């Protein structure tokens, strides 16, 4: 998930900012790159603690959602990519039944779309997308 982050230059020429979609998530750094690395770490720790507590992980909105917020004026926007699958817990093996032709089509699709890694990766990604729309 791509989280928009808002940055501004501080009086001492360092950078700080916050993640509008993750309440209480702030970051800072001596350079923009340092600040963005810290933003990644801040989001990672925040989301991990929410997941460990069984709380909902915030969804990232578009920058347009926040562009007129008072706290988001005069600075810069960037994105930080976070792989939310890391916070879903350990993998559990299960047995499911699918029609043979459907399974063949899934396997063929995964073979030509290696970004899914496996049949399980493909099915998990589809489930994530559907659940995100719920």
From TrEMBL:
Tree of life domain: Bacteria
Domain HicB-like antitoxin of toxin-antitoxin system: 3-127
InterPro entries: Arc_rbn_hlx_hlx, HicB-like, TTHA1013/TTHA0281-like
A Pfam family this chain is assigned to: HicB_lk_antitox
Name the UniProt record assigns to this protein: Type II toxin-antitoxin system HicB family antitoxin
Organism: Candidatus Pantoea formicae
């Amino acid at each position: 998930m791509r989280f928009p982050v808002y940055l501004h230059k501080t009086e001492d020429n360092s950078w700080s900012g916050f993640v509008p979609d993750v309440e209480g998530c702030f970051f800072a750094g001596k350079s923009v790159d340092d600040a963005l690395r810290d933003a990644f770490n801040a989001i990672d720790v925040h989301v991990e603690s929410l997941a460990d507590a069984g709380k909902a992980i915030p969804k990232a909105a578009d920058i347009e959602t926040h562009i007129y917020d008072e706290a988001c004026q005069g600075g810069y926007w960037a994105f930080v990519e976070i792989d939310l699958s890391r916070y879903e817990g350990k993998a559990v093996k299960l047995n499911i039944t699918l029609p043979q032709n459907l399974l063949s089509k899934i396997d063929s699709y995964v073979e030509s779309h290696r970004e899914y890694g496996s049949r399980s990766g493909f099915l998990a990604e589809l489930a994530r997308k559907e659940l995100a729309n719920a």
